[in-house]
From TrEMBL:
Keywords from the UniProt entry: Cell cycle, Cell division, GTP-binding, Magnesium, Metal-binding, Nucleotide-binding, Septation
PANTHER family: ENGB-TYPE G DOMAIN-CONTAINING PROTEIN, MSS1/TRME-RELATED GTP-BINDING PROTEIN
Organism name: Candidatus Gottesmanbacteria bacterium RIFCSPLOWO2_01_FULL_42_22
Function: Necessary for normal cell division and for the maintenance of normal septation.
Name listed for the protein in its UniProt record: Probable GTP-binding protein EngB
Gene name, Swiss-Prot/TrEMBL: engB
Family: Belongs to the TRAFAC class TrmE-Era-EngA-EngB-Septin-like GTPase superfamily. EngB GTPase family.
Classification via Pfam families: MMR_HSR1
């Protein structure tokens, strides 16, 4: 269970044949600055595949990466960035909702990333509700766990677990590569199911 190759294919803004070519899609979502790009980079051989910390939340694209010539990583725009004007933000959110509710993509796993210290925000909860309603497989990643002491970590995990119902949560740190093997295992078992 290893990622040997990953390459950027293209960014799409709406429906596209790529979505329906039958390849499994691992969709990464989350607020800007939660470490989404860092997490993608932590999984692939090249450490700067996804761009980190550049104009967060301003790109209106779903970026497709072909992984192991077999499946896709899909990097979604980060939401919730204060400097993004309201209209653009609405468009970002609509794109995510469209993908989840109306795109009719079949084989996918959504990876929703949160900052463990902050926990679930309102929009994260909206996404979780939709994932549950639509019966889409997903995982919750509690990233930046390195910023918390053991006790705080346990407290935050409890709160998030309560907020997220019975969601599967993986504690993660891109900084310490913590949780990486667990996440890779989960990704590959999702694909081969
Ligand atoms: N302490 C800590 N910082 C992180 C972690 N992951 C990402 N960051 C930092 O958080 C900031 C945003 O990361 P980025 O990957 O660009 O977030 P994105 O906007 O969600 O794509 C950067 O300064 C990263 O170095 C982590 O696990 N721990
Ligand atoms: Mg990013």
């Amino acid at each position: 269970m290893k990622i040997n190759t990953a390459k950027y294919l293209k960014g799409i803004t709406g429906t596209d044949p790529l979505l329906y070519d039958g390849k499994f899609q691992i969709a990464f979502m989350g607020r800007s600055n939660v470490g989404k790009s860092s997490l993608i980079n932590s999984l692939v051989p090249q450490r700067s595949l996804a761009r980190t910390s550049r104009s967060p939340g301003k790109t209106l694209r779903m970026d497709f990466f072909l992984v192991n010539n077999q499946f896709y990583f899909v990097d979604f725009p980060g939401y919730g960035f204060a400097k993004v004007p309201g209209k653009l933000h609405d468009k970002l959110r609509k794109m995510i909702l469209w993908y989840l509710m109306y795109s009719d993509v079949k084989n996918r796993l959504v990876i929703l990333i949160i900052d463990m210290k902050i926990g679930l925000t309102e929009y994260d909860k909206t996404i979780l509700d939709i994932l549950n309603e639509q019966r889409i497989s997903y995982l919750l990643i509690a990233n930046k766990s390195d910023k918390l002491k053991k006790q705080e970590r346990e407290k935050q995990l409890k709160i998030t677990q309560q907020d997220a119902g019975n969601a599967e949560i993986i504690i993660y740190s891109t900084k310490e590569n913590y949780g990486r093997d667990q996440l890779l295992g989960r990704i590959f078992s999702g694909i081969n199911r």
